[in-house]
Amino acid sequence: MHRILILGGGVGGTLTANLLARRLKKQVDRRDAEITVVDATGAHIYQPGFMYIAMGGERAEKLQKSERALLDDRVRLVVGTVDRVDEVARTVTLADGTALPYDQLVLATGARILPEAIEHFEAEAHHFYTAAAALRLRKALDAFTGGKVVIGIASMPYKCPPAPLEVAFLIESELRERGLREKSEVHFASPIGRAFTIESVSEMATPILEEKNIELHTFFNVETIDPERKVVQSLEGEELPYDLLILVPPHKGQQFLMDSGLAPAPGGWLPTDRFTLRVGDRPNVYALGDATDLPLSKAGSTAHFEAPVVVENVVATVEGRAPSGKHATYEGKVMCFFEVGDGKGTLLQFDYDHPPKPPKPNQFWHLGKIVFNKTYFHTVPKGRV
Amino acid sequence: MLDTTPNITRTIDARGSFCPGPLMELIRGIRESQVGDILAVLSSDKGSKIDIPKWIEKAGHRLIVVEALDGHDRIIVEKAR
Questions:
Q1: Of A54, A114, A131, A159, the residue nearest A249 (C-alpha)
Q2: How far is B23 from chain A (nearest CA, A)?
Q3: Which residues of B are part of the catalytic machinery?
Q4: What is the CATH class of A115-250?
Q5: Tens digits of per-residue pLDDT, A245-274?
Q6: How far A197 CA lies from chain B's nearest CA (Å)?
Q7: Phi, psi dihedrals of residue B73, rounded to the nearest 5°
């Protein structure tokens, strides 16, 4: 019996499990292989939809499905919280003491947000990285009657790199539509020397910021929030006063990965080979999605394109051969839609060797994103696209 | 190259990391250091020798030197405030 254990039931874990079930159908039916997914909640959540709870009338219940319903019947689902990985014993232990042995381990454990890492964040700042926080932001926007809006990024890396810029563009559009633009300032604070990490995307976004009169503040690494003076202060010594503060919270990898010696502190991102997706030099441990330390977007799209590579490598081991074909190695492919407001969007498509060349924003790419969001549960996790 | 090597308090080896990784590593290092500490960042990302000095200027620290070494750059900075 070859035991394949997948930790995490997000995009990466679910898609990997379903593709494996398809490729190893005979082995699973003969009980020569077993595919198990461990997920903390048993609910699969479409996180890119959170932004639309704040900005587009989306509802939290539409963004959630039962993980069991998305998994192939040949995949076993265990709902539980991982406590530790013992690499010597090749066993994962859950918080309730359940021990799950493995021959190959796939880490699709995502990223976690830590708003509490910045004092006063939870009382003063809004974000859109949970359904509840996005709904709270929506209510704050509804109550907003004009003033200074500051949108920023507390630290890098973080999930869905375009999201804070998209939110800035969408809020600016909304303020115009509501007749509040003249009474408002919109500020965008970036931790680096430009609006976006990838230079070509920054070159696309910066003129749109200028056109929409959104003031860009570069090298703004959030240090403190002063709730009495209503200012956010940067490590670089700059202050931005706010009436409405929206910050991407700090992110880290999972604590148990650091506790188990798989990922270094303090970030907890898994040291992942950019081509094989193996963790370190381990021949039987793979990582994909937000959990890796790869220089790529932490986005479902990245996991979507990584999953077939993990699957080919795992299947090759089961079949006792070298990985082969177009999914033998990962070339860094990522594809993301990017909202720019006013019903327009663009597309970022890139890999390790080819930076994105975003097309001129238009309605088509905005609609593309909406259609993708609405059809996600029927397509991506099941390996249909 | 410097005639004399400054007394480096901490070296941050960010080789193999891509923009903005080396800058973010330096920012973390600066946060954890004392005023007067000297930090060296090793980076193989070509953008670092431009981005990091710009950040050092904005943040009010002192750039000591940018050196091109074998396959990477070494940027040395003093935490000034």
A1: A114
A2: 8
A3: 19
A4: alpha beta
A5: 999 999 999 999 999 999 999 999 999 999
A6: 7
A7: -110, 150
